[in-house]
């Protein structure tokens, strides 16, 4: 039997003397399309030619198995982290019990006063005449504002300016006397007005809010509302609670107008200062109730 090899082709010639026959077989390995046609005698990497094919296959299987094991371990670790995390609750937290912001409790002593519960200095003596003149002075009608429903009020910044003028900046303050209570629509908290180291008044402020994001702003408005109520005990802007003054101010400085919402086209009555104008989204109309 004779065997001839031509690169990728192999010829095999078999001759039988007994049967006086011969057989010729031919096999070849054609290169695949889009593959390099390098000959086996010219390996691309000399190191690959020195490594047996079985060893190269074993290395490839080992690398593939290691990659799969690493991917499975990463997936298991990610899954365990997700399981270990606490579930996110979509329920709204009940804040009616308070925000857990109780004032600090101080030790009562000669130099420290716990304003969260103390009534130190209340009604011990009147303030000086200079401070009283500032607090009791008549308020200017130019400072009074009116709400759309006809309620008149003094902006909270006016109260702060009067207190700063009477006691000096830093000579007064608002001390919380309890937790901030948040209901479904409002924020409320009790405050004490302290001036020159003496308790002046205690009042509870309140402020409405429309979304949870507005709670911080409502908490600040609650403090301003408590300040306004505490200032009543000092006589600041006491005219605003005098019915005679309120009726006179409304007659001389306030006008009633009928307005229409420019988007919904709903009409209603609104109160404005005589020197004020209707603001967007409303516009003044004269045919209220008419088609």
Number of helices: 6
Q: Structural class, from secondary structure content?
A: alpha+beta
What is the end-to-end distance? 117 Å
Beta-strand portion reads 15-25%
Oligomer: single chain
Could you give the order of the helices and strands?
Answer: EEEHHHEEHEEEEHHEEE
Shape: flat
Low-confidence stretches: 1-8
The helix content is: 25-40%
Biggest sheet architecture: 4 strands, antiparallel
Report the strand count: 12
The overall pLDDT, averaged over residues, is 78
Radius of gyration: 45 Å
Structural topology:
Elements: E1 2-6, E2 9-16, E3 21-28, H1 46-50, H2 53-84, H3 129-136, E4 145-146, E5 152-153, H4 156-167, E6 172-176, E7 181-182, E8 186-195, E9 198-208, H5 215-231, H6 243-253, E10 254-261, E11 267-273, E12 282-285
Report on the structure:
This protein has 291 residues and is α+β, with helices and mostly antiparallel strands. The chain contains six helices and twelve strands. A hairpin with a 2-residue loop joins strand 8 (186-195) and strand 9 (198-208).
Describe, in short, the structure shown.
The protein is α+β, with helices and mostly antiparallel strands. The protein is built from six helices and twelve strands.
Features of the shown structure:
6 helices, alpha+beta, flat, 291 residues, three-stranded antiparallel sheet
């Amino acid at each position: 039997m004779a065997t001839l090899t031509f690169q990728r082709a192999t010829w095999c010639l078999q001759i039988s003397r007994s049967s006086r026959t011969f057989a010729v077989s031919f096999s070849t390995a054609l290169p695949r399309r889009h593959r390099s046609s390098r000959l086996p005698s010219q390996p691309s990497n000399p190191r690959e030619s020195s490594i047996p094919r079985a060893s190269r296959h074993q290395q490839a299987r080992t690398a593939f198995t290691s990659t799969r094991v690493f991917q499975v371990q990463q997936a298991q670790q990610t899954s365990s982290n997700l399981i270990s995390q606490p579930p996110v609750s979509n329920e709204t937290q009940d804040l009616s019990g308070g925000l857990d912001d109780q004032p600090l409790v101080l030790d009562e002593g000669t130099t420290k006063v716990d304003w969260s519960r103390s009534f130190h200095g209340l009604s011990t003596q009147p303030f000086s005449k200079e401070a009283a003149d500032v607090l009791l002075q008549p308020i200017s009608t130019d400072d009074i504002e009116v709400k759309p429903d006809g309620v008149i009020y003094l902006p909270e910044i006016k109260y702060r300016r009067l207190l700063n003028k009477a006691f000096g900046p830093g000579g007064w303050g608002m001390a919380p006397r309890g937790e901030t209570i948040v209901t479904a629509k409002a924020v409320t908290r009790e405050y004490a007005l302290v001036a020159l180291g003496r308790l002046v008044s205690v009042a509870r402020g309140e402020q409405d809010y429309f979304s949870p994001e507005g709670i911080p702003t409502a908490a600040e408005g609650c403090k301003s509302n408590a300040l306004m109520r505490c200032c009543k005990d000092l006589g600041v802007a006491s005219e605003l609670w005098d019915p005679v003054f309120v009726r006179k101010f409304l007659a001389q400085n306030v006008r009633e107008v009928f307005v229409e919402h420019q988007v919904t086209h709903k009409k209603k009555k609104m109160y404005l200062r005589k020197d004020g104008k209707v603001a967007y989204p409303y516009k003044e109309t004269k045919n209220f109730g008419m088609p």
